[in-house]
Amino acid sequence: MSHELPVLAPLRHGEWANWARNQSAHPQRMARPRDTDALRELVRSHAPAPIRPAGSGHSFTPLCATTGTLVSLDELSGLVEIDHAAATARLGAGTVLKAASRELDARALAFRNLGDINVQTLAGAIATATHGTGARFGCLSSEVRAVRLMVAGGDIITASRDQDEPLLRAAQVSLGALGLLTEAEIQLMPAYNLHRRVWSQPIGDILASAEALWAKHRNFEFFYIPFSGHGICIAHDETDAAPTPRAPQNDDEETMGLKSIRDGTMQDVSARRAILHKAMAQNEGEDVVGVSWQLLASPRNVPFKEMEYHLPLDGALGVFEQLVARVEAERPDVFFPIEVRMTAGDDAMLSPFQGAPRISIAVHAYFEDDHDWFFSLAEPLFRAAGGRPHWGKLHSLGARELSALYPEFEHFNAIRRELDPPGLFRSPYLAQLLGETPA
Ligand SMILES: Cc1cc2nc3c(=O)[nH]c(=O)nc-3n(C[C@H](O)[C@H](O)[C@H](O)COP(=O)(O)OP(=O)(O)OC[C@H]3O[C@@H](n4cnc5c(N)ncnc54)[C@H](O)[C@@H]3O)c2cc1C
Q1: What's the 124 CA to ligand 1 centre distance in angstroms?
Q2: How far apart are CA 236 and CA 112, in angstroms?
Q3: To test ligand 1's pocket by mutation, which of 18, 91, 117 has the most ligand atoms within 8 angstroms of CB?
Q4: Does domain 193-389 have CATH number 3.40.462.10?
Q5: pLDDT digits (tens, 9 = 90+) for 84-139
Q6: pTM: predicted TM-score of the whole model, two decimal places
Q7: How far apart are the C-alpha atoms of 147 and 216, rounded to whole Å?
Q8: Nearest residue to 432 (alpha-carbon basis) of 396, 404, 379, 387
């Protein structure tokens, strides 16, 4: 496999920071074990605790932060084994999704779905239930068929549907709280091309047809451009057609364009509405065919902070409408598109999609802008509708609220205590999430 390193934010003078630069840490030790023996040595040395695994640092929450030991498993990456008949592959935990996609494509296999980006590590994406969109597709964690996990004593344990099914369902969304994932077996499918269509439409029309669009298209999502009255729809469907040329993508320039319109109209929102309305009416959209993994994910270079909640289908679009009304009445500073997606249900213990499909609504703020409105405005609306937060994105919940949202919360904790009696992997943040005092 091409050796594509996770874009782990560099450690400068002993400081680790995440992609969005809203989380940082000063670990006493930063380790990058070259193999499982070196990893075992590290774990057995109790190398100062808490030991926290880090992937590409693309979570906005302090899941990786530690004053103890930060471990990168990027040396444990690559394709370990493929089963073509079952369309599954065993991959090293530190494998970057983009590198895996490329390598799998060369073997005529592909992920069934992907999120907006593909620079996360496999383990990092699994640990937080990273998802894309599509009524028939679960989050990446739901595609995990088996895991290999190094636990507090340094032993590697395995779990699958046939062997320790509860452990598999706990490890599918683990927050890195159970130990260090070293490998995962993932359900894939034969490599496929997608027909991608992007178009803009008045938001009222999108909301009226959203349910039908999710039913019709393999993958469907929309982005609402605040103050424009319009959304951008993106649909993907499988096709046997060959890839067609694609114009260079300019998402980053478009985002910065929205920012400069915002900056120039802070005191005159009606002028902003007129500018955006015109721009959206002129949006040409896109109609191309391409290789699945190249169309599903895109680079994201404009740094932002994000909150995303996963809501029960019933009422989710009503929450979206309330959110837009409140943002446009109260927050002229908001310019980042609001993203709306759907993900199928699964049965992983801490999956936000556990039990039933959900609609995800994501709000963003430019990295230098205030994001207090996430908590004062958006989160109460999401919570009132029974939403569960994305584990890797900003939220204010702790164990008390989370245990009420997850029927198997205590089961997960019981498994965690059994695997990690000394609390080697338990940081103060994890203790707050899971309901225990820090180790
Ligand atoms: C620009 C951007 C776009 C995004 N788009 C999406 C999207 O479309 N859909 C979506 O759902 N999310 C999205 N996210 C969120 C992102 O997918 C998740 O936060 C994901 O967890 C990041 O993966 P990572 O490799 O960076 O992991 P990190 O953020 O580094 O770590 C995440 C968790 O994984 C744990 N972990 C890492 N390695 C291991 C290991 N070997 N064993 C056990 N635990 C481990 C860490 O301890 C931590 O708890 C996006 C984030 C950004 C910044």
Answers
A1: 4
A2: 12
A3: 117
A4: yes
A5: 999 999 999 999 999 999 999 999 999 999 999 999 999 999 999 999 999 999 99
A6: 0.97
A7: 34
A8: 396
